[in-house]
């Protein structure tokens, strides 16, 4: 079955953009990771907050439709994912990232690979490196990697990851249905998109680590980007407002963690399906001097051989139809400009 690993194979990334810095040993920000002051310290608005939606609210569909259209991002509570599961996955991620660098390099993502340890996939688009290390999991890829890292004790990591992926898949399916229902599209389209995405292997789980940084005002955790797939569910249980979104006419807004809530954001593919009614939110992550932040992002997407096009029954489509694989290839070449290449 077509999945993200196939889609990435044709776009190798140079090793210098894959191997993260050894953050354990570093006590100052090297020039390679030093961003211009203005990129890291844009003024951030704290007074405006993104919507928080109770999934048990009888109006959840309407609230999600409104938040997706107006913000492209919202937080959900009463989502049915136990706090223990949110904490367990963070704990396993912390265990992985705290391994010595030579251990982590055993599971380094290969240049044409999609899974394993390494820098963010967007790294080659920027002249400076990010204060970040990641670990990408697709399907059961964590099994081989965990066996390399913990030959006698790999099961714990795999069990936590598998359970988490299963739970995320259910939740992503539920939220995708609610977002699609709020659009002006046919019942058939809603049912077929929700079902085919659920059955696909198109999802990925990304563990993110943002180590403590000696000079946070000159470093960036994750540079501004949009997520490529349909929607992302982000677990940021840590108590820091490091994630920021860009809102036209306002600027950068901090996404303050709400206890036990999960952050949901619209990705490029849902933006296309919605005929641009839902913005695919531009976001970035800042770093801290004394908090080593972990986040876990679940990217929910369809099979990479499926065709994506605006689904609206009434509007003139503003994007042409294309396969997910083709969109990923355009994004791999043009990043933020990808959507402009498929505009009609
Ligand atoms: O760590 C975060 O808060 C955001 C992570 C993110 O944007 C990503 O993994 O694409
Ligand atoms: Fe992201």
Largest sheet: 8 strands, mixed
- The outline comes out as globular
Give, in spatial order, the strands making up the sheet with the most strands: 2-3-11-8-13-6-5-4
Radius of gyration over C-alpha positions, nearest whole angstrom: 19 Å
CATH topology: Jelly Rolls
Highest CATH level, the class: Mainly Beta
CATH architecture: Sandwich
SS-based class: alpha+beta
- Terminus-to-terminus distance: 30 Å
Number of helices: 11
Helix content: 25-40%
Q: Which runs of at least 5 residues are low in confidence (pLDDT < 50)? A: none
- The topology string of helices and strands comes to HHEEHEHHEEHHHEEEEEEHEEEEHH
What is the tally of beta strands? Answer: 15
Pathway: Hormone biosynthesis; Plant hormone biosynthesis; gibberellin biosynthesis
Protein name: gibberellin 3beta-dioxygenase
GO molecular function: gibberellin 3-beta-dioxygenase activity; metal ion binding
Pfam families: 2OG-FeII_Oxy, DIOX_N
């Amino acid at each position: 079955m077509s999945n993200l690993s196939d889609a990435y194979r044709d776009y190798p990334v140079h090793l210098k953009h894959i191997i993260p810095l050894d953050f354990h040993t570093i006590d100052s920000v090297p020039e390679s990771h030093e961003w211009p002051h203005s990129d890291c310290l844009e003024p951030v608005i704290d007074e405006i907050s993104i919507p928080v939606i109770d999934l048990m609210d009888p109006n959840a569909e309407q609230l999600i439709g409104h938040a997706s259209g107006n913000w492209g991002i919202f937080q959900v509570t009463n989502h049915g994912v136990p706090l223990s599961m949110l904490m367990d996955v963070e704990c396993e991620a912390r265990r992985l990232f705290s391994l010595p660098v030579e251990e982590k390099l055993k599971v380094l993502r290969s240049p044409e690979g999609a899974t394993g340890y390494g820098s963010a996939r967007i790294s080659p688009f920027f002249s400076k490196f990010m204060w970040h290390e990641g670990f990408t999991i697709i399907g059961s890829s964590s099994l081989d990697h965990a066996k390399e890292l913990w030959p006698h004790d790999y099961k714990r990591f795999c069990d936590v990851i598998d359970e988490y992926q299963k739970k995320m898949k259910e939740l992503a399916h539920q939220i995708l249905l609610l977002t699609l229902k709020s659009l002006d599209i046919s019942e058939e389209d809603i049912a077929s998109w929700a079902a085919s995405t659920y059955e696909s292997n198109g999802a990925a789980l990304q563990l993110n680590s943002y180590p403590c940084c000696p000079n946070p005002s000159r470093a960036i955790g994750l540079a501004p980007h949009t997520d490529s797939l349909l929607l992302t569910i982000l677990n940021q249980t840590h108590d820091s407002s490091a994630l920021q979104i860009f809102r036209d006419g306002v600027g950068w807004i901090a996404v303050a963690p709400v206890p036990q809530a999960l952050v949901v954001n619209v990705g490029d593919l849902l933006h296309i399906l919605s005929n641009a009614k839902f913005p695919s939110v531009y976001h970035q992550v800042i770093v801290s001097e004394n908090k080593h932040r972990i986040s876990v992002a679940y990217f929910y997407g369809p099979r990479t051989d499926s065709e994506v096009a605006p689904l609206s029954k009434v509007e003139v489509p503003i994007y042409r139809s294309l396969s997910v694989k083709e969109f990923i290839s355009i994004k791999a070449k043009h990043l933020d400009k990808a959507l402009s290449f498929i505009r009609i």
